[in-house]
From TrEMBL, chain A:
Family of this protein: Belongs to the CPA3 antiporters (TC 2.A.63) subunit B family.
Parts of the chain that traverse the membrane: 12-29, 35-56, 68-87, 117-135
InterPro entries assigned: CPA3_antiporter_subunitB, MnhB
Keywords assigned by UniProt, alphabetized: Cell membrane, Membrane, Transmembrane, Transmembrane helix
A Pfam family of this chain: MnhB
Broad class of the protein's primary localization: membrane
UniProt-recorded name of the protein: Na(+)/H(+) antiporter subunit B
Its membrane topology: Multi-pass membrane protein
Annotated Na+/H+ antiporter MnhB subunit-related protein domain residues: 5-128
Keyword Transferase in record: no
UniProtKB/TrEMBL annotation, chain B:
Membrane topology according to the record: Multi-pass membrane protein
Highest taxon, organism lineage: Bacteria
Keywords assigned: Antiport, Cell membrane, Ion transport, Membrane, Transmembrane, Transmembrane helix, Transport
Residue ranges occupied by any MrpA C-terminal/MbhD domain in the UniProt entry: 612-676
Cellular localization per UniProt: Cell membrane; Membrane
Gene: mrpA
One Pfam family from the record: Proton_antipo_N
Main localisation: membrane
Domain NADH:quinone oxidoreductase/Mrp antiporter transmembrane positions: 129-403
Domain MrpA C-terminal/MbhE: residue ranges: 686-770
Segments for region (Disordered): 771-808
InterPro entries: CPA3_Na-H_Antiporter_A (IPR050616), MrpA_C/MbhD (IPR025383), MrpA_C/MbhE (IPR046806), ND/Mrp_TM (IPR001750), Nuo/plastoQ_OxRdtase_6_NuoJ (IPR042106), Proton_antipo_N (IPR001516)
Name of the protein: Na(+)/H(+) antiporter subunit A
NADH-Ubiquinone oxidoreductase (complex I) chain 5 N-terminal domain residues: 68-108
Length: 137, 808
């Protein structure tokens, strides 16, 4: 697609969109957002980049093959499920802890975040597989 | 006892490593001796338990597995299992050694040892099991391992076909056996065999008795190759000889006999038991002996002779007097010794001269003296010549059958034995005597691992015949376990001149005469009888099997062609049509009765949004270019997202916006390579499709309206709302549900997504070379859409769950 405007705009939009997707992902537990929509937004941004530039260029942006993202995502989700077993809790029970860091204040963090990261990675990886397969055909 | 099974399983696991390790030392067959230590150890362990078993002490293990389902692993050693256990491990150890020599230098030797040991563990578990379900699991394990063993030469099609046939017949039998065992467990109110023994009387009078007996017997008959399921056993000879010697003579085929014996004290003693089992046994016995004479391949002769002996065992168990039970066990022991030995002899001959056709064999006694000695010992036992154990077994057999009313069974026994004696002539006399033939010119003796095991078995058969006191003890305990009461046995080699001895002599004389007639080529006189058997029996059940196999395949092909015809429109038609039809069939009346006019309380901008959705949908349908159609669909999606915004579901709206964008992008990518729209369908077809679409849409609308009226009073969402912060530390209920409350569902869904990605990837990148055909391109394009649709549907369904969650 030879649209100069889109081509130029996307180079500036891509980092912003990716940042927004991480933002959506992180705020998901308390505000609208989450790993699913975050992953979709990230893959949408990369899809636009792939369409305007090339699939090869987009692969460079992602750095890892999309199937690694899928595998890693499934692994994250599985780890967050298995971890509670070591504490004598049922599979996929959320484990929470509070970390205090100098200057940053308190951070309440738990395994559901890891699980959501898994969802984020799988959704991104799957959509990118679709996009790249279609574009490189 | 669990330890024994574990030891054998561990030996199986390390067998390939042992083979590689020993192979690097340059002594390929040494691994057999090493691995044989394990079953030999179990054999000795069983021997040490002999005194306590004979004294009726309880030797058992009980491990509760799933108490709620009455599942337990319980093992128990009594006389019957001890007898079988000794055979399984003792002969198993010899077979491991023999296999090392038989497949010397073959890379697959480690694999073979592993499978043999796995099979051994399954068989040992089967004879030790005291729980019906444990027994069944081991039963199926023997079927599976024997499938792998028969198909060991997996590069040969006939080997694969035989393996499949054995699996289908015995596996099908197992399928029939399972409900039989369950009925038995229900009728006896327990799955422990030792518990069932105490309630034998009520079980025999239970209304389930006849069905359970028939089902169990079908299972046992398939496994033990009884008529009409006998046809798989000769075909199973496609396996290498060590496997045939072990599975198809000494152990696996006796599992059915074992089951009948094991259940005799519970189910036996009725008229149904007697007639069903004894008649099938008698038919099989005679049939096997006749077919053995028809065969010319050494292993085929032995296979049919095995069928005959299995028939004998079944017959004796079916008659079920104390004397016949003892005779059954005596025949069983004698057979294990001589048949195992004869198979190994046949394997040694095959290994040496690569010929198993008896017509081509001759004069081997000089070249292979040790093998000849083994064949002589085993042959004497099989023919029932004094002073082998085979003689004692046959005497006991004739004696016990002669004592029951009616001489039909005795006559059948003598006839079958005459046939077996003649078969001994073909297996043990013909290949070794006479002049050397063309194929036996270069015969040579194999190593001690080759002739050692059959010689050991032959000498053991002779020793048991000369000193039958110890084995009498075991047979007494074993038949006591079958009879359900104490049985005293006094086997002796010489009973003086009596009717039984005369019958034995008559059998020998008849057999030798028969061999002489057949040997002299005067077969043509007997040919009409053979043709009769061939036509009616040998090919009958086998034909049915092949017909069934063909029909099932044809049915599957026809059904696939009908349901998976490759037309996307057909799939859509089926899916949508079935959904609509099933909704109306299941809920039709309720849907109609719940439809009431609802108060329309709408705001202006909502009406506007609804109109926009409708208009975009119409445009999408009427569009002449794909770009317009895709764009119009995008408008529909965005408007739906707008509805979510208006009704306070920001999460959902956001997801919908992103998904809609991505969908349009993917559609554009896919469609940009396709030709422009063309109108290929007739107006009638389009009308039909429109009708389907309208009906489907209306159904879903009605269903949604209905769903709103039947909400339960306490929706689950209340719980989620109340516990979201306190238990899951999150204020966004939708996300908390996705990643915490119902994380297992999400885990499943992302897994499905990953699988969808693999599917799309392989469909798009791995496909056959393109044909230079425009039609073909178009067809591929349609497929692409369907793939993308599938992916889109998956994304949507995940979003759909969010709808459920947010519709609070």
């Amino acid at each position: 697609m030879d649209s100069v405007i889109l081509k130029t705009a996307i180079r500036f939009l891509l980092p912003l969109l990716l940042l927004a997707s991480v933002f959506l992902f992180l705020r998901g537990h308390n505000e609208p957002g989450g790993g699913f929509v975050g992953g979709l937004l990230a893959s949408g941004a990369i899809a636009l980049y792939a369409m305007t530039h090339s699939a090869a260029a987009a692969r460079q942006v992602v750095r890892v093959p999309p199937r690694f993202l899928i595998g890693a995502g499934l692994l994250f989700a599985l780890v967050s499920g298995v971890a509670p077993l070591f504490f004598g809790r049922p599979f996929l029970t959320g484990l929470w802890t509070t970390i205090t860091t100098e200057g940053l204040g308190k951070l309440h963090i738990g395994t559901p975040l890891l699980f959501d990261l898994g969802v984020y990675c799988v959704v991104t990886g799957v959509t990118l597989v679709f996009v790249f397969s279609l574009l490189e055909e | 006892m669990l330890l024994w099974l574990l030891a054998i399983l561990i030996a199986a696991a390390v067998a390939p490593t042992v083979h590689r390790g020993v192979g690097s030392l340059g002594r390929g067959s040494l691994g057999g001796w090493v691995l044989a230590v394990v079953p030999a150890g179990v054999f000795i362990a069983l021997l040490t338990l002999w005194p306590s078993v004979v004294n009726q002490q309880d030797v058992s293990v009980f491990v509760d597995w799933v108490p709620a389902l009455n599942l337990a692993v319980s093992l128990r050693l009594d006389g019957l299992s001890l007898l079988f256990g000794l055979m399984v491990t003792g002969i198993g150890a010899l077979i491991l050694v023999y296999a090392g020599a038989y497949l010397k230098g073959d890379d697959r030797l480690g694999h073979l040892w592993m499978l043999l040991l796995l099979f051994m563990a399954a068989m040992l578990g089967l004879v030790l099991a005291d729980n019906l379900l444990t027994l069944f699991i081991f039963w199926e394990l023997t079927s599976i391992t024997s499938y792998l063993l028969i198909g060991f030469n997996s590069d040969r099609p006939e080997s694969r076909a035989s393996a499949l046939q054995a699996l289908l017949v015995t596996g099908g039998g197992g399928l029939v056996l399972l409900p039989g065992l369950i009925l038995l467990g229900l009728a006896g109110n327990s799955f422990e065999i030792s518990m069932l023994l105490t309630s034998a009387e009520p079980i025999r009078e239970h209304s389930f008795y006849l069905p359970m007996l028939v089902l169990i017997l079908v299972g046992a008959f398939t496994k033990s190759a009884q008529f009409p399921f006998h046809f798989w056993l000769p075909n199973a000879m496609a396996a290498p000889t060590p496997i045939s010697a072990y599975l198809h003579s000494a152990t696996m085929v006796k599992a059915g006999v074992y089951l009948i014996a094991r259940l005799h004290p519970i189910l036996g003693g009725t008229a149904e038991w007697f007639w069903m089992i004894a008649s099938v046994g008698a038919i099989t016995m005679v049939l096997g002996a006749v077919l053995a004479l028809r065969a010319t391949d050494l292993k085929q002769i032995l296979a049919y002779a095995t069928i005959s002996v299995l028939g004998t065992l079944t017959l004796l168990l079916g008659i079920g007097t104390e004397a016949t039970l003892v005779a059954a066990l005596a025949v069983l022991v004698a057979h294990a010794f001589y048949k195992g030995g004869l198979f190994m002899v046949a394997g040694a001959i095959d290994h040496s001269v690569h010929q198993r056709d008896v017509r081509e064999l001759g004069g081997l006694r000089i070249a292979m003296p040790a093998t000849f000695a083994a064949a002589g010992l085993a042959g004497c036992s099989m023919a029932g010549v004094l002073p082998t154990f085979g003689f004692i077994a046959k005497e006991t057999w004739y004696e016990s059958v002669g004592h029951i009313a009616g001489n039909g069974f005795l006559a059948a026994s003598i006839l079958s034995n005459i046939g077996l004696v003649a078969a001994v002539g073909f297996v043990c006399v013909k290949p070794f005597f006479g002049g050397r033939t063309e194929s036996t010119q270069h015969a040579h003796e194999g190593g001690p691992a080759m002739w050692g095991p059959p010689v050991v078995l032959g000498i053991a058969g002779l020793a048991l015949g000369l000193l039958p006191t110890r084995i009498s003890e075991l047979l007494a305990t074993g038949s006591g376990a079958i009879a359900g009461r104490t049985v005293s046995v006094h086997l002796a080699l010489w009973h003086g001149v009596n009717v039984t001895l005369l019958l034995s002599l008559l059998t020998l004389a008849g057999g030798i005469t028969l061999y002489w007639i057949l040997r002299r080529g005067q077969l043509h006189r007997l040919k009409p009888y053979f043709y009769f058997f061939e036509g009616v029996i040998q090919y009958g059940p086998s034909r049915v099997y092949h017909w069934l196999l063909r029909t099932v395949n044809q049915f599957a092909r026809g059904q696939t062609a009908l349901l998976q015809n490759g037309y996307l429109r057909f799939y859509l038609f089926t899916m949508v049509g079935l959904t609509v039809a099933s909704v109306w069939m299941a809920l039709g009346d309720e849907l109609r009765s719940h439809l009431e006019p609802m108060p329309l309380d709408v705001r202006g901008h909502e009406v506007l949004l609804a109109c926009l959705i409708l208009a975009a949908a119409v445009v999408a349908v009427r569009a002449k270019t794909w770009l317009l159609a895709v764009g119009a669909l995008g408008v529909v999606g965005y408007c739906v997202a707008g509805v979510f915004v208006l009704f306070g579901a920001p999460d959902l709206a956001m997801t919908q916006f992103v998904i809609e964008t991505l969908t349009v992008v993917l559609f554009v990518m896919a469609f940009s390579r396709l030709p422009e729209f063309r109108r290929l369908s007739t107006s009638a077809t389009r009308g039909r499709d429109a009708l389907i679409a309208v009906v489907a849409g209306a159904t879903i609308t009605v269903l949604l309206l209905f769903a709103m009226t039947v909400r339960s009073n306490h929706p689950i969402s209340d719980y989620y709302l109340a516990h979201s912060v306190s238990e899951a530390h999150g204020r966004n209920v939708v996300n908390v549900i996705l990643v915490d409350f119902r994380a297992l569902d999400t885990l499943g869904e992302i897994t499905v997504l990953a699988i969808a990605a693999i599917g799309v990837y392989s469909l798009l990148t791995l496909r056959p070379p393109k044909q230079a055909d425009g039609e073909d391109d178009a067809a591929e394009g349609t497929e692409e859409c369907s793939r993308k649709d599938a992916a889109g549907t998956q994304l949507d369904s995940t979003a759909g769950r969010a709808v459920d969650a947010e519709g609070v």
